[in-house]
Structures are given as structure tokens and as C-alpha cells.
Amino acid sequence: MKVMNISSAINAPVFQRRLRENEKQEYRQKTLQEAFDYLGIKELALIMHGSCFPVETPDFGVGSPYSNASKDVIELEMLHGFNNNQLGPNGKLSKADISPYKSSVFSRNELFIDLKALKSDRYANILSDKASNNILSLLTIKYKPDEQNYAYSKFYDAFENYDIALNVAYDNFQKKILSKDSNAIKLNSEYQEFKKNNKNRLIKEGLFNVLSKTYGTGNYKVWDNSIDRNLLDLLKDRNPEAIERYNYLTAKFKKNLNVYSFEQFIADKQLKEHKQYRKEHNFKYISDMLVGFSQCDEWINQDAFLKGWRLGCPNGGTYGPQMWNVPVLDPDKLFNDDGTLGVAGKLLKAKIDTALEDGDNVRIDHALGLIDPYVYDENSVEIVNGKLSDKFRAGNISHLGLDPECQYKNIIEKIILPSMKEHELDPEDAVWEDLSNNEYTWFDEIYKKKHNLPGITQLEFLRSEGSSRKNWALLGSHDSQPALKLLNEQNWVRNHFAWEPQYLAGFLHWDKFERANERDAFCQRIANNNLDRVKAKFAELFMNSEKIQISFADFFGLDKVYNYGGQRVDSNWKLRLSKDYEDAYYKNLSSDNPTALNLPEILKIAVKAQMDREYIQYKNNGNKDAEQFKQNLKTKMQPLLDRLDKFTEILKEKEE
Length: 656
Description:
Belongs to the disproportionating enzyme family. The protein has helices spanning about 20-40, 70-80, 130-140, 155-180, 180-215, 225-230, 230-235, 240-250, 255-280, 295-300, 345-360, 410-420, 445-450, 485-490, 490-495, 500-505, 515-530, 530-540, 550-555, 580-590, 600-620, 625-650, and strands at about 45, 85, 285-290, 305-315, 320-330, 360-365, 375, 385, 385-390, 395, 430, 455-460, 470-475, 545-550. It is of the alpha/beta class and about 650 residues long. Strands 11-6-3-2-1-14-13-12 form an 8-stranded parallel sheet. Helix 2 (about 70-80) links the parallel strand 1 (about 45) and strand 2 (about 85). Helix 3 (about 130-140) runs antiparallel to helix 4. It is globular and about 85 Å long.
């Protein structure tokens, strides 16, 4: 793996010990990589959604996974052993709900456009200093003295900022084309090719955006014009009123539609440029194929969905079930009688293709929803005295008579796996989010018995022992509180079997004779110190899986929550890295109470535990030379243990 240099602020005072240039190679390759190799770890991913990346100056409100700032983050990730970043869904967001899991499947998120890049020659300087200095100064987020919290995105400001900036960029682009600017002409050639390849999608999405603004909502079901509610279906039938309405909208809002197409082009171009950058540096983005569809996707593809039914989860919501209010693919339209894909099947195929094209790997969100989804009748939702009334109708689709031919059972085999093969992705490498209530569903039969697919081992609720090495393992996901915050504030965690000091001490000290005293002291320490218990859980994380994920909040030692799963909280989806995230990380490590992850320290615990396990398993197999085996193993591993010690202390050093 290529290791890149990490830039630091010039002339800025440094109060924490950073790795020096002559130490980085030894740290990354000779120490971390050797530990990973010994533990059998092939993939290490940071869970950090696109908006969580730090912003540059000026601050337009939201971070981007495709900006220059993201490349600096990737450099830091790579230095500390990560070779993947798990993103969230990257589609266009709704102002009414900024959850990335309610974003559009196909349209790009314009808030991820790196506006600073538009001031470069390759983007024809369409936001050049001369043309845009005044605009940029107006758009930059202004923080009042008592509101200077750069750890949160300002989505609502960002929507306004990008709307203004991209309109200005488009106008400048058109002027430069007319003036025969060579860079603009080259950019326009790319733009025209993009429009040609995406014309059908762009006009439909653009019309939805126009109508959403007209009605003040993306919920097309409440639009008071039946023609607009069903415009695309009526156009297919050559309805005269729909044709007249279409002509009117495309004429009146021509500029809006053009700006939308242009913004999608810029977002797509930057996404592909960044993908090439990652390929050159052997780093992967794991895209997130959300299980649902947005209001825009639903309006465009109404004939693909089951009327009156919505997707959810049977538990974890305010009234019991989680009611996600996302559409459900019509099982009767997944496949045609001849086995080819129906309209719903084609839509699902396009969705996974998009996710695989955007990223270098993919996370399959809520795999149960692709096999036997929990659905509810949207017309039966009635709250009486703070509870769902008896009229509420819900259940897995296989139990409700909505999928009599059991077509959902075929999605994995006939759509998902073939798409992965087309994109040369081994299904065992994908991140399959299989956490769900599987009881009384087709899930185990299809997912586990028939296809033997990997899943998630989430140590927030589980023990590592006995879990499949094929699984991606993590302590907490994007829906979790940081581990230390969880342990400090939630009583159930401290008493949970997955967090028991006796279990963790025993699992990390297999040699009950030679390391008995060390084990007992370790058990006492983690029972009385939550930070040490968190370190033990992360050491456990590195023990039983080839593929590891770590939340950015845990890695950087944040005590804030990115998303409270299943709860509507104003701060949800807004947490991001501050501009000085690198300084903050090293300062945290060198503090008296470090909460950021010191990977050498954690890996040493895991390596010693694996040495124990290797020795005990060798001994239990009846080998007569077990003691000699142990001594040879100690001799072999001591240089690595010494280097782990060395870098553990380096990262803790204070440097003035």
C-alpha cells in the first residue's frame, strides 16, 4: 500500500507528538501491517458518511467525500491502517428530511460538489475570483460568537448556498462558451455527452424538483393537481392535458431544468475524478445501497411500487414499529412470466448498478428488505392515546398475502448477485447488513442456507467469539453512540453479556496459567475504568474477523452522536469532523485522558491474545512440543510487540 505524506499547518504551534517522516514507513508497514497480517485482517474501514468530511475555507455548510479536504482525510486514514471508507447513501437530499437514507437513488447530491474546484481551469474557472469573490463572501456560513460549533453541518444554509452558487456557475459557463473560452468549450463537450447519456433521467428528476418547489413539498400525493401527481404515467398514455402541462413546465422552467442538469454533470464528474484518485492510491469507498427509494424515485416510477404499502422495521420506533415511510417494490412486477426483469426488477437492478458504479465496494442496507420485508398499510396508521390503534396492519410481506408467488425470494439470486458479478465484486467482500428480526421470515432459508452470505458482527450487542471470519465486524455503526459515551451513559451496556469484564479478560488472555495474574489485573482494571473496557472491546474487534469497520466518532474520540437510530433528534446526520480534525486527533491521544483510538495500543492487546490462542489451540491438538512452540512464537513476535509498544508511547507523547 502506498503511504502518502500528511500535511500539517505551516508555522502553527504543535502541542502533540506526531509521527515524523522517518517514522511513518515503520509505523504503517512494519508495525500496523504486520499486526494486521498476523491477525488475519484484510480490510479496515472507517465509517464516515459523505457530509461528515471536514469543510475547507470558505465553509458552505456541508463536507464532501470528493473535495480536496477528503483527500487529506484519506491520507490520515491510510497512515493509520485504513484501506476503506464506508460512506452513506450519496443521493440528492430533501430539505424536509436530511437523512441520507431518504435520499434519491440516482440523482447526485449537489451539496457534495467541491465549489472551490470550479475556480480551476479544468472547470473553466466558472466560479473565478473575479466573478465570484463577492458571492462567495455572502454564501460563507456566518457563526455567531456563541454558536461557533464547527462540528455540525448546516444543511439548510447549504441548500441555499449551493442553489445560488450553481446558478452563478451555470451563467458564467454559458457566457464563457459564447466568448469561445477554450476550457469552457472543452467542459461543454463533456457536458453535452453527459446530457446525451442521461437525458431521460435528468428531465424527469428536474421536473420533480420544479414541482416540489411549486407545491412546497416533495410528497407528490398531496399535490392538488392530479395531472402533476401522475404526469409521467399520463405522458406515456399521450394524455393531451399532460402533454400541454409538460410543454408549459419545460418552457417556463427551462433555466431551472438546465441548471439541474448542469449540477448533476458537475457532481458526476467530480465523483468519477475522485474514484480515479482512489484507484491510484489503492483506497476504496464503500457506497451504501439504501433499501428504500426517495419521493422523487417513487414519483418517476410509480408503476414499480405496491400501492398503499410502506417499508419499515417491526421494532425500535416511537410506537413500536419503525415506520420509514418509503415505498415497497411490487412483488408482481419484479419478474415477468418469461423470467426477465419487470419494471420493479429493472428499477432495483439500476439501483445496485448505480451503487456499484459510484463506489469501489457496496454495503447492502437492510438485507431482509430484499428477501422478506416488513411492510405496513399506510392507511392503517392511527395513533390513539399514544399507541397504535388496533386497525394497524403490518407484517413481513410473505405473511400478508402480498407476495403469493414468493417473488422476493428470488431477488438475491436473480438481481443482486448477478449485478455484483457484472461489476467484478465478490459477494463475500460486500458489506451485507443482515441485522434484523428474522423470525418467521424467509431470510435464513434464502440468505444463509441457500447462498451462505456473510453478515455483520456488531459487538455493541454481541460477543466476538464464534462469529464468522467472513463477516464485517464492528463495535458501533452509523446509528450507534460512540462506545465510551454508550458505556458512560447507558446502564444496560455495563451489565450486558457482551461487555462483561470477566468475558473480555478471558477472551483476551487464553493462557490461563502463565497469564493468569495479568488476566485478573486486566479484568479488575476494565471493570473499574470505562475507557479501558472500551479498549478491550476494540481489541476483541480485531480478533475474529478479516474485515473491520470503525466509526469515525470512535476513532477520533468524539463524544457526540452522528445518528440516534430510530429516533427523531434535531442533531441527527449533522455531526462532522472539525477543520482542525488532525490536530485534534493527536492532541486527544497525547492528553491525560485520551478518548481517540491509539491503534498500536489496541493491536498489542489483540496480538498477545492471538498468540495465546495459537498456543492453546496447538497444545489442545495434542502436540508434545507445545511449550517449545510457545517460546518460538514469543521470539518471533517480540519485535512486533516492541514496535507496537514504541508507537503506542510515541502517540501519547506531548511535544511542545
